[in-house]
Amino acid sequence: MEVVWAKILLPALVASGKMLLFGSLLGGFFGFLLAVSLFVTGQNGLRPNPRTYQVLSALVSSIRSFPFVVLIVAIIPVTRFVTSSSIGWVSALLPLTVASTPFFGRMFENSLKEVNPALIEAARSFGASNLQIIFRVVVPATLPSLISASVLGVIHMLGLSTIAGTMGAGGVGASALIYGYQSFNDTVMYLLVFIMFVIVMGIQAIGDRLYKSAS
Predict the structure, then answer these.
(1) How crowded is residue 69: how many other Cβ atoms within 10 Å of its Cβ?
(2) Distance from CA of residue 48 to its chain's centroid?
(3) Measured CA angle at 204 (ends 181, 21), to 5 deg
(4) What is the reported pTM?
């Protein structure tokens, strides 16, 4: 068992952890920028622009409609151009970011829309700029909802990273497939499934605690 842990489980968890961490940071960052753009240009936004909103919304919907496996294959030339390879967890960050940004963006947009319009009008009456309204009014007022959306996004990223593992990125997905399913080793496969379950429960528990702190 020590050999299995040292040779298979630990390297797989480290690779998946890196994909989860950096993929969530990149997807969350670009998703937040996308959400702010959607919120500002939306029908009841700070600066409504229906054409821009429709273009961004269509972009979000079109990328989200791609099965992740198909997306990984479709952007392999871009991945190779950016990272000089299509194998490994670093190369997986590009498709992970592309796939998760629209998910984070839509979730964050829905959270930002929960702000009370009266707060925005009050801020405007004091002469606040749109940027000040977003970061000093909207984000603080919707912080619990943003945290909940982030938790869902991170768990979503964990699932994507597992799929990426089966496509050459390594990590838990690759180990479960190669050393578990294809090697008929039920112990390794179900142990990895159990570890993934524990990770999801841990992420949710941390998110719930942060949500209560922000509420």
Answers:
(1) 13
(2) 27
(3) 70
(4) 0.87
